[in-house]
Amino acid sequence: MERSLEEMIEVLKLTADKTRLTILLLLQEKELCVCDLVEMIGISQPGISQHLRKMKQAGLVQERKQGTWMYYRLDESAHPVVQAILQHAPSLKEKLEVYEKQRNSMMCERENNG
Amino acid sequence: MERSLEEMIEVLKLTADKTRLTILLLLQEKELCVCDLVEMIGISQPGISQHLRKMKQAGLVQERKQGTWMYYRLDESAHPVVQAILQHAPSLKEKLEVYEKQRNSMMCERENNG
DNA sequence: ATTTTATATAAGTGAATAATAATATAGTTA
DNA sequence: TAACTATATTATTATTCACTTATATAAAAT
């Protein structure tokens, strides 16, 4: 209520996109790297990176570098409407579990981070 | 949580526009006709009507005809995320009160509906 | 040092859309 | 009936934006 209407519009525009809302729902479950999101969502890597950059600039996600990987997670200090929106959306917990099982079953190339 | 991701995206896209979010915030206070919204928001009448049509089609607002006027109000059965969003936005109660006072002071051409 | 891998940035393209101007419809009033 | 008012619809335009391809950067592995 204290934040401006313009701030709300910015956040709503960011969540009003299927790719970005999916990213947020996945990050709600677990910190993930870009390549995880590319595989699970199925658009190009630059596409994912551009969405992440926008959401980082708006304070919706935070990043952490580890080697060549860049891990992303939800920013806890984001506009509170983000949590309200995510809680009204269907969970992607199952989708993430399926992805992780199949990834682990193919003799993971990297250490299992998480 | 039961409603699909696509349904959420549709609602979020509709609220992620300054004009439409303003309309919803005003309707949250009171049922209003198109000309009220035109005056308060300051875009053309077709612009307002088009936004209202979209929101009506998505089940966000309802309409009621009275003479040549068409009154709009929030649809109570809209996707619950709408209420969550509106409650996180700054209220436009004051803006509406100012408008109504100045409208009443100019010897209202129509009966004061509401 | 060269190659490979993960990610970021830049450039370009097509589609969606918010706004306006012009016109149509329909109810009201003279 | 004719003029007026409130709203809806249509056509048009300009802008935004999601995505892709191509390229750059940077860390890791060979």
TrEMBL record, chains A, B:
<dbReference type="GO" id="GO:0003700">
    <property type="term" value="F:DNA-binding transcription factor activity"/>
</dbReference>
<dbReference type="InterPro" id="IPR036388">
    <property type="entry name" value="WH-like_DNA-bd_sf"/>
</dbReference>
<feature type="domain" description="HTH arsR-type">
    <location>
        <begin position="1"/>
        <end position="93"/>
    </location>
</feature>
<dbReference type="InterPro" id="IPR011991">
    <property type="entry name" value="ArsR-like_HTH"/>
</dbReference>
<dbReference type="GO" id="GO:0003677">
    <property type="term" value="F:DNA binding"/>
</dbReference>
<dbReference type="InterPro" id="IPR051081">
    <property type="entry name" value="HTH_MetalResp_TranReg"/>
</dbReference>
<protein>
    <submittedName>
        <fullName>Transcriptional regulator, ArsR family</fullName>
    </submittedName>
</protein>
<dbReference type="InterPro" id="IPR036390">
    <property type="entry name" value="WH_DNA-bd_sf"/>
</dbReference>
<dbReference type="Pfam" id="PF01022">
    <property type="entry name" value="HTH_5"/>
</dbReference>
<dbReference type="InterPro" id="IPR001845">
    <property type="entry name" value="HTH_ArsR_DNA-bd_dom"/>
</dbReference>
<keyword id="KW-0805">Transcription regulation</keyword>
<keyword id="KW-0238">DNA-binding</keyword>
<keyword id="KW-0804">Transcription</keyword>
